[in-house]
Specification:
With 238 residues, the chain is an alpha+beta fold. It contains 6 helices and 13 strands. The radius of gyration is 20 Å and the shape is elongated. The protein starts with 7 loop residues before the first strand and ends with a helix.
């Protein structure tokens, strides 16, 4: 467990406050982030418009009709006074089946070659640990997860792709993520999943929440297709 944070408050807009708990990214900080999220929601109540937790901060968007800036800062201080970390089981657990193959994961053989191993070893390592969902952003349902094994850390592509297919699983530096929909992107793609990350028909439209734990599980092409996956190679997608 990380040391107790010392919250700092930064004004980011006339109706928004940034609560900074830490300066560095660490999985050990997530219990504090989750506890702060719950405490701020409780204290702001109906005056809260939105609350966005991230790696080290929480963005508090409040109703200026109900609260002025001074009152919002004081309310945030009261909420975090005596804060205790959330339990380690606060986040949900997900197992995401992934078809790892160079036809849908073109960087898979490249990373394997760089490390001097077979692609199967890269798959084994990517599936060997649980990842923490630190934050949601970039696209609806897109979760920034980590931390990837240091040896697998790979810089983003110098030239991002114009179209990355939905379900693509990739890494960038020590983070990993899944593209919830087709979009531009510069992450190193290892494979693809049929799991739908964002669905307006679900009660919770985003599959992941900050603090969730995610583990990837390798599956074959047939299982991927049976689950509804599209095996079209990336090169044919443009």
């Amino acid at each position: 467990m990380s040391d107790s944070p010392r919250p700092r408050f930064e004004t980011v807009a006339m109706d928004a406050l940034m609560v900074r708990l830490f300066d560095a990214i660490s999985e050990a900080h997530m219990p504090w982030i989750l506890a702060a999220d719950a405490a701020l929601r409780q204290h702001f109540g109906d005056a809260l418009i939105d609350l966005v937790p991230s790696y080290t901060t929480l963005l508090v968007h409040y109703d200026v009709v109900r609260l002025d800036h001074a009152a919002a800062r004081e309310l945030a201080r009261e909420a975090l006074d005596g804060l205790e970390p959330a339990s380690s089981g606060a986040g949900r657990e997900h197992v995401i089946p992934v078809w790892y193959d160079d036809s849908v994961g073109p960087e898979l053989p490249r990373i394997a070659e760089r490390l001097g191993v077979e692609p199967e070893e890269i798959v084994r390592r990517h599936c060997a640990r649980d990842y923490c969902a630190f934050a949601l952003g970039f696209a609806p349902g897109y979760a920034f997860m980590g931390l990837v094994e240091e040896a697998l850390a790979t810089p983003r592509l110098k030239t991002p792709r114009q179209k990355v297919p939905a379900g693509s699983v990739g890494i960038a530096e020590r983070q990993t993520a899944i593209y919830p929909m087709r979009s531009p992107g510069g992450w190193n793609i290892l494979g693809r999943t049929a799991v739908k990350l964002f669905d307006r028909q679900r009660e919770e439209i985003s599959l992941f929440r900050p603090g969730d734990r995610v583990r990837f599980e390798a599956i074959g092409r047939e299982a991927f297709i049976e689950q509804g996956g599209d095996p079209t190679p990336m090169e044919e997608r443009g």
